[in-house]
Structures are given as C-alpha cells and as structure tokens.
Hints:
CATH superfamily of the largest domain: Cytidine Deaminase, domain 2
Radius of gyration: 31 Å
Pfam families: DUF2016 (PF09436), Prok-JAB (PF14464)
GO molecular function, one term: metal ion binding
Structural class: alpha+beta
Protein name: PRTRC genetic system protein A
Organism: Paraburkholderia bannensis
Strand content: 25-35%
Shape: elongated
Distance between the termini: 124 Å
CATH class of the largest domain: Alpha Beta
Keywords: Hydrolase, Metal-binding, Metalloprotease, Protease, Zinc
Number of strands: 12
Number of domains: 3
Number of helices: 5
Order of helices and strands: HHEEEEHEEEEEHEEEH
CATH architecture of the largest domain: 3-Layer(aba) Sandwich
Strand order of the largest sheet: 6-5-9-10-11-12
CATH topology of the largest domain: Cytidine Deaminase, domain 2
Helix content: 25-40%
Amino acid sequence: xxxxxxxxxxxxxxxxxxxxxxxxxxxxxxxxxxxxxxxxxxxxxxxxxxxxxxxxxxxxxxxxxxxxxxxxxxxxxxxxxxxxxxxxxxxxxxxxxxxxxxxxxxxxxxxxxxxxxxxxxxxxxxxxxxxxxxxxxxxxxxxxxxxxxxxxxxxxxxxxxxxxxxxxxxxxxxxxxxxxxxxxxxxxxxxxxxxxxxxxxxxxxxxxxxxxxxxxxxxxxxxxxxxxxxxxxxxxxxxxxxxxxxxxxxxxxxxxxxxxxxxxxxxx
Length: 268
C-alpha cells in the first residue's frame, strides 16, 4: 500500500511540473504574440481597412528615433531603416558586407531632387487652423491693447489674449509689469486655469518700430502661440505691427494690416 501511495504522489508531482512547464510556455507564446500584434506608430485609425498595407510598408523599412541619452544600437539584421535625429532624417543600411548611415539629401534642402531612398509613407498638407477662426476675431482685444499701450508711453506694455476652452472664446488679460522702460519690459507670467491657454502674446515698442528682437526670439523659442509687437505709437508717428506664429522655435510670419487695428476717423 505504501509503495502504491508513493508511486501516486510521484506521478502527481510529475504531472504538476508538466502543467507548470506548459503554462510557462503558453504565457511566453502569448507575450510574443501580443508583442507582434502591437500597433505601429502610424497616424491612422486601427479599424481602417487599408492599415495592414501601411503596416507592411512600415515593417519593411521602419522609422526609429535615435536616443539622445541612451547608447545608439546599430541595425543588426540585413535590411534598412530610417533614423529620426535632431539633424534630420538618416537612412541606415545593413548588408553582409557593409553598414552604412547617411543623411538623406532632401532633409538638407527641400528643393533638391531626391536621389536616395524615401520613407515609404504618405504625405500631408501644411495646416494652420485656429479654434477662434481668423486672427481678425481678436480685433476688439487688439484694439484694447493698442489703446493701453499708447497710455503706457513712453514705456513698453504687455498683455496676453487667452483662449478659454470652456467658453470657447478669447479673453484679454493685461500683464502688470514688474519693470518697464522705453526699451524693455518684464512681468511675472500669470497662472492659468486648466481650461485656459495662452493664444496671443502682445508687447509694444513704444514709439519705436514694430519688430522681433533677438530677445523676443529667445523668449518665444519653445512656445506655441501667436506673438505680436506694436510700434510707432507716439503722437505724429505711423503705427505699425508685426505678428508671427511661434511653433516650438519655428516662426511663421502672419500678415496683419495695422490700419485694421488703428482705424482712422472718417473725414466729414
């Protein structure tokens, strides 16, 4: 009887070990399948019927980011991929006899005809769209700033126009200066509620011309906003303005006629 009991216990233990091994293998298989099914970084809806074609293209020549802090690991398999870097797009090619990394010509000069590989992706049109419509929607706020900037002469003046996402409207907000002179102004950035964001950043140059200085370039770098400068505000001067869209260090000029803001009274 004791021998039978020992045999049963040994068989049971061996069975449990086999089950555990099978479960472990199953878990690894599921994890690998999930990793293979992980969606690619493609800007498309997951239920788009054409997405598998783009996935196949992506897998044939993927795009990867080159790390800024971690060590770059070169392509090991035979094939090629595109490298996104701080200096443009590079192509990396691996063959049994060569390993090549080269910057793509068209990332240096957008007007140059490409003679090298092109990432197998689609194209997109440039776009600038504001939730409040055209910049002219802020005319009332811009005129309010012009009046207050003139009142602050000879010193510079500053104000923000805030986008209120709850009310879906622009709101004018003067910025009390901590220091203001005819050539500079400093202020503490106001705290904004979660539903508020800076849309238009305004400052004046007093009676001087409207332009963006190197200091303005440094202040605007890294921000997403519309920046505006008002100048020629003194008596007898011709008012002028300068506007640009700031996009993380890229500046896009915006045409805003000063006459639309500084309306002259009609002659009788």
